[in-house]
Specification:
The complex is a heterodimer.
Chain A (H helix, E strand, L loop, with lengths): L2 E4 H11 L4 E4 L6 H9 L1 H5 L10 H13 L4 E6 H6 L1 H10 L5 E7 L13 H7 L3 E2 L4 H18 L3 E6 H4 L1 E5 L23 H13 L1 H9 L5 E3 L6 E6 L1 H10 L8 E4 L1 E2 L3 H10 L2 E5 L5 H6 L9 E2 L14 H7 L26 H15 L4 E3 L24 H12 L4 E6 H18 L4 E6 L17 H8 L6 E4 L6 H13 L4 E6 L7 H15 L1
Chain B lengths: L1 E9 L4 H14 L3 E5 L10 E9 L13 E6 L2 H6 L4 E10 L12 H9 L4 E4 L1 H7 L6 H9 L7 H12 L4 H22 L1
Parallel strand pairs in B: 1-4, 4-5, 5-6
Antiparallel strand pairs in B: 1-3, 2-3
The chains are: A alpha/beta, B alpha/beta.
């Protein structure tokens, strides 16, 4: 019988069955369930597959490379913007290559359901000159993951699997196959492979360039790229990943009359692309995210007008694909019978009832009413909802860790009070280094670490910061007299405002840890955290 | 035959319980299924939906195209109306009548009810009250599931078996309360149809 799995779970099962020895990741929608599935898997536990969360995507990817160096198969998982954090190791491990099979899974979020942008990770794959796999449905997610590890070891390169939200967060019945054994430890044959000093790096980089032809050949022969003939050559379709599904949906039980080139492995298979171009008058490119293929295959000046897609306005330039916008691109009539009645109002997400961030924002807003020069630099997490009514407490939200560093820059420019609000997990992910910058210059900023002891937004995963914040701040050099702990509860409102006001008035770096566990955590975990925090205070 | 169902509600209201029962029953009946869901920021108290597609043939898209939903099940009356562009002509609507009030500009209930009742195949039920009467207000969703069971390509037995599978860890009493809720929903739908 088939097993019902989310796209993300199918990927995780595929990795277990491909014989991985570890997964390294930081939570981030829509990628989180991949690692969680392995954490909960009995098989993974029996096989001692490493699956504990890393502090951020960079540390995760580097640890994965270390495991690969030791000869074992390993996966690293993140959301699209997480790859920005890991970009340093990502670019350089393409040059060094790998030893044990290494697969980088990146889940993109077109339409920005839970993200700040809709950057397309295929650009990173091409940038690093590594093969990219882009499955079209959940079964293919499973199959492609197993294949990715084979390809990685065959090419000696890290392989990227690109997921998108809809594929990640939809369930389907999956047929699984026999699990492969894990690799035994074996060190790289070439002792200089991982020593990227210029003299070795040049050789490695030359090698990476040289094997691009193998990469193209692999794509041309890949079972995941398919040329499907059709009688109507007035148009040919290039459909990447999930777009292929939406095309099939639009023709339901009939065959699509147009020739289709389905793409699930990059670099683009040149021979098949040429065949489609030679056969068809017009080419419609359908791909989720950026016009990545379209830019590659369009002529620069657009004079032939042969290629249509997101760049030409035939498909929406921003936002995810769906069966409806593809129907429109194919020239089909709209199927809507009823519009949304006017009586229906928007219902944006909000902070949970009883959430500690609510009490913190209440205090911040009272302080704003005392001094309207106050600027609050926010960060990534549930507290980002403080941008919206009813609180509207936060002025900026850019990327993981930017609250502290932006507050510093604004303070350097003369803004006062300059306040940073950052969650505990985001602080250990990317806030600590920025705090050191501020400590070195004793910049007058107040950093509020809203410590709910969880990676709350993605489902209350364990936070690397739990019980460690005080010692970390002291270690970085924050003056003990300006390191305060408050409990954000309504009954403490006045007291908390006084404490924060005092720290704002201090002419240097101050840190206020607003400590109360996430309301989503189970009681046993909350109690455990309280004990942990007590020990660290003493 | 393909059946497209949209489940609607507010993050935290548990629409995925209904989805899970449909998943288990469809898989056990040898049918194909696709079921999308919402994770991440949008699920915190915001509008959420799940697309469930059941078919004896291969299912392609994870999302139901506009105008192709056979049934919309909602655990909240305003959320039901949000997905009308997906409804097939003469498609079926069923919703709990109790509002989830977490926005300041929530419309007047009467206006919502009038709108819902203007559809020929709409069923507006106080499922929460029924579930409470049975002594398990958490079974609200199961009452709604019972009310559309006759429209599904799944037998009552397979649905009840799925309820059993899903709740068996929580004990026999919870299972039987949910089966009761399912039967009650079914009964209401039959009475209304007469």
């Amino acid at each position: 019988m088939k097993t019902l799995l989310l796209g993300n779970e199918a990927l995780a099962q595929g990795a277990i069955d491909a014989g991985i020895s570890g997964v390294y990741a930081y939570p981030g929608t829509p990628s989180t369930e991949i690692t969680e599935y392995i954490q909960k898997s009995k098989t993974a536990k029996e096989l001692k597959i490493h699956s504990k969360w890393s502090v951020n995507e960079k540390t995760a990817m580097e640890a994965a490379l270390g495991m690969s160096y030791a000869g074992k198969r390993v996966m690293t998982v993140m959301k699209h913007v997480g790859l920005n954090v890991a970009a340093d190791v990502f670019m350089n491990m393409a040059v060094s290559g790998i030893n044990g099979g290494l697969v980088v899974v990146v889940a993109d979020d077109p339409s920005m359901h839970s993200s700040q942008n809709e950057q397309d990770s295929r650009n990173y794959g091409r940038f690093a000159m590594i093969p990219i796999l882009e499955p079209s449905n959940q079964q293919e997610v499973y199959d492609i993951t197993r294949y990715a590890f084979e390809l990685s070891e065959q090419m000696g390169l890290p392989i990227m699997i690109r997921m998108v939200t809809r594929l990640s967060h939809s369930r389907a019945g999956i047929v699984t196959e026999k699990r492969k054994l894990q690799n035994v430890i074996h060190l790289p044959k070439n002792p200089h492979q991982f020593q990227l000093i210029p003299m070795h790096a040049r050789n490695q980089y030359q090698h990476l360039v040289d094997i691009q032809s193998n990469s193209r050949e692999s794509s041309a022969n890949s079972v995941f790229n398919k040329y499907i003939d059709g009688p109507n050559t007035s148009m040919g379709i290039i459909a990447a990943g999930i777009a292929y599904n939406y095309i099939r949906e639009n023709f339901e039980d009939d065959e699509c009359p147009y020739p289709i080139l389905k793409i699930s492995q990059y670099p683009m298979p040149k021979k098949q692309v040429k065949k489609l171009f030679d056969t068809c008058k017009k080419i419609l490119v359908l791909e989720d995210g950026a016009p990545f293929i379209e830019e590659l295959v369009s002529d620069y000046l657009g004079e032939t007008k042969k290629v249509i897609g997101r760049l030409t306005g035939h498909v929406n330039r921003v936002g995810e694909l769906n069966p409806d916008n593809i129907a429109k691109a194919l020239g089909f009539a709209e199927q809507i019978n009823e519009d949304i009645p006017k009586v229906v109002k928007g219902r944006p997400p909000e902070l949970c009832v009883g959430c500690a961030h609510r009490d913190l924002f209440e205090a911040i807003n009272k302080l704003k009413s005392e001094n309207n020069q106050q600027q609050v630099f926010g960060d990534i997490g549930c507290y980002a909802l403080g941008v919206l009514p009813p609180y509207q407490s936060i002025n900026t939200l850019i990327d993981m860790g930017a609250s502290i560093t932006m507050a510093k820059g604004a303070s350097d420019a003369g803004i006062h009070p300059s306040i940073a609000i950052i969650g505990d997990s985001t602080f250990t992910h990317s806030g600590m280094t920025g705090l050191l910058d501020a400590v070195i210059e004793n910049t007058p900023i107040t950093v509020i670490i809203s410590d709910n002891s969880a990676v709350a937004m993605t489902g209350a995963q364990d936070s690397s910061a739990s019980g460690r914040l005080v010692s970390i701040c002291k270690g970085i050099g924050v003056d003990q007299n300006h390191l305060k702990i408050i409990t954000p509860l309504h009954k403490n409102l006045d007291k908390n405002i006084d404490i924060i006001r005092n720290e704002i008035n201090y002419n240097g770096v101050s840190v206020v840890i607003a400590q109360r566990p996430c309301v989503q955590l189970p009681k046993e975990k909350k109690d455990k955290l309280k004990e942990l925090q007590k020990t660290f205070l003493n | 035959m393909k059946t497209n169902i949209i489940l609607a509600g507010v993050g935290g209201q548990g629409i995925l319980t209904i989805a899970a029962i449909l998943d288990i029953a469809a898989l056990a009946s040898g049918l194909n299924i696709k079921q999308s869901e919402v994770h991440g920021m949008s699920q915190r108290g915001g509008a959420v939906q799940s697309h469930v597609r059941i078919s004896d043939k291969e299912i392609f898209s994870d999302l139901i195209p506009q105008g192709k939903a056979d049934i919309i099940i909602s655990v909240e009356p305003m959320e039901l109306l949000r997905y009308l562009p997906f409804l097939k002509k003469n498609g079926h609507l069923v919703t709990d009548s109790n509002p989830f009030l977490n926005i300041l500009n929530y419309p007047k209930l009467e206006e919502l009810y009038t709108e819902i009742k203007s559809f020929p195949n709409a069923l507006l039920i106080d499922a929460k009250a029924i579930a409470k009467e049975l002594g398990n207000s958490k079974a609200t969703n199961i009452v709604l599931l019972g009310a559309i069971a006759h429209l599904l390509p799944l037998s009552d037995e397979s649905l009840k078996e799925a309820i059993n599978t899903l709740f068996s860890k929580k004990g026999a009493k919870i299972v039987s309360k949910n089966i009761e809720a399912f039967n009650k929903g079914k009964k209401i739908a039959t009475e209304k149809a007469l």
